Amino acid sequence: MAKDSVSHVGKIVEISPETITVEIVSSSACASCHSAAFCGLGEAVKKAVQVPFSYGNWSVGQEVDVILRKSMGFKAVWLAYLLPLAVLLAVLLGTYSVLGELYAGLLGIAAAGVYYFVLWLFRDRLSNEYSFYIKER
User: Fold this and answer.
1) What is the model's pTM?
2) Total domain count for the chain?
3) What is the pLDDT of residue 13?
4) Which domain holds residue 56?
5) How many CB atoms lie within 10 A of CB 108?
6) What percentage of residues in the chain have a pLDDT greater than 70?
């Protein structure tokens, strides 16, 4: 694996002519703890990732590495967390002295909601930019 990419182990769950669906199990930091079974706080979340079909000997149940460039991960953090925070704070600070605390807060939340709605409208375009690929383990 190159230093400019992030890799996760996954298992192929479905193969179609266009995509390969890979299931990744994300575990929390305490999953490796010996007391995690008794504690109840440790959790594992299954995520399905659709990867464009690439030729090879793929089979359902096969373990593969799912790879994404690190730069795409950083871009996702910007789009999903940092830019909406900036929108919220800009609207909140810009309207606080004029509208008061309650309306500035509501307007800031509404502006963040509009931002996420616009992001949702561009989901197809964004999904083309974020492409995973797989390789055999």
Assistant:
1) 0.62
2) 1
3) 86
4) 5-136
5) 20
6) 81
